């Protein structure tokens, strides 16, 4: 009954509010950049914060299904918005790295992608997100068919894992934060695997 009331309260919420709320961290980041609140290296601060926001939205998207399974709270209608916000922040993260950090020095960019594992993984995650973003609409579902569309969007699991690995390998001292992100992604994917195996059994 409580879950039904919660669901009923959430159904009228327009998806546009999810997008608006998802852009608030960007507004805060712009404010911090304009007021000098990002430290001595603001470019790195912006780059890392955008990447972290992208990972947070990816994890948020993975949370939606288990939340429905075990609490009855149904946020499925917002999952597309959460995924597109993740892609938006990934694009900004990449743009800052290309334009502000490396200033379009293409030889250096290519060398970094080839030689630095965390950048290689990040670029793989970005490449996998492109077809997901392009097909995140009702027209794509109709054209592809629900079964094919669902199979394609299982790439989300690989993207989240690659994103967490990208963050984990980026840091050198192994602080707690990236470890927690990796543990969260692994736990959420394990829940899905356990539920799939249980249903088949």
> How many domains, in number, for the residues?
1
What proportion of the residues is helical, as a percent range? over 70%
Average pLDDT works out at 92
Shape: globular
How many angstroms separate the termini? 30 Å
- Structural class by secondary-structure content: mainly alpha
- Distinct helical segment count: 10
Low-confidence segments: 1-10
| Total DSSP E strands | 0
Biggest β-sheet strands, sense, barrel = none
Description:
The chain has 201 residues and is mostly helical. The radius of gyration is 18 Å and the shape is globular. It has one domain. The protein has helices at 2-10, 15-34, 42-71, 79-101, 106-115, 117-134, 138-144, 146-152, 155-170, 176-200.
Features:
10 helices; mainly alpha; MsrQ-like; 201 residues; flavoprotein; heme; disordered N terminus; single chain; 82% helix
Q: In summary, what is this structure?
A:
Belongs to the MsrQ family. This protein has 201 residues and is mostly helical. It has helices at residues 2-10, 15-34, 42-71, 79-101, 106-115, 117-134, 138-144, 146-152, 155-170, 176-200.
List the helices and strands and how they pair.
Elements: H1 2-10, H2 15-34, H3 42-71, H4 79-101, H5 106-115, H6 117-134, H7 138-144, H8 146-152, H9 155-170, H10 176-200
Helix pairs in contact: 2-3, 3-4, 3-9, 3-10, 4-6, 5-6, 6-9, 7-8, 9-10
GO molecular function: electron transfer activity; FMN binding; heme binding; metal ion binding; oxidoreductase activity, acting on diphenols and related substances as donors
Organism: Cereibacter sphaeroides (strain ATCC 17023 / DSM 158 / JCM 6121 / CCUG 31486 / LMG 2827 / NBRC 12203 / NCIMB 8253 / ATH 2.4.1.) (Rhodobacter sphaeroides)
Subcellular location: Cell inner membrane; Membrane
């Amino acid at each position: 009954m409580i879950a039904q009331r919660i669901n009923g309260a959430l159904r009228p919420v327009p998806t546009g509010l999810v997008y608006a709320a998802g852009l608030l961290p960007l507004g805060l980041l712009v404010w911090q950049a304009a007021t000098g609140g990002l430290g001595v290296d603001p470019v790195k601060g912006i780059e890392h914060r955008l990447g972290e926001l992208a990972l947070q939205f990816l994890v948020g998207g993975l949370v939606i299904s288990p939340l429905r399974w075990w609490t009855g709270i149904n946020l499925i209608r917002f999952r597309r918005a959460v995924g597109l916000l993740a892609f938006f922040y990934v694009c900004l993260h990449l743009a800052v790295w290309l334009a502000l950090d490396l200033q379009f020095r293409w030889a250096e960019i290519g060398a970094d992608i080839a030689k630095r594992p965390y950048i290689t993984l990040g670029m793989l995650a970005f490449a996998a997100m492109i077809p997901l973003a392009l097909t995140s609409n009702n027209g794509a579902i109709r054209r592809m068919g629900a079964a094919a569309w669902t199979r394609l969007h299982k790439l989300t699991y690989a993207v989240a894992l690659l994103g967490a690995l990208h963050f984990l390998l980026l840091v050198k001292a192994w602080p707690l934060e990236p470890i927690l992100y990796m543990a969260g992604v692994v736990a959420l994917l394990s829940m899905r695997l356990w539920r799939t195996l249980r249903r088949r059994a």
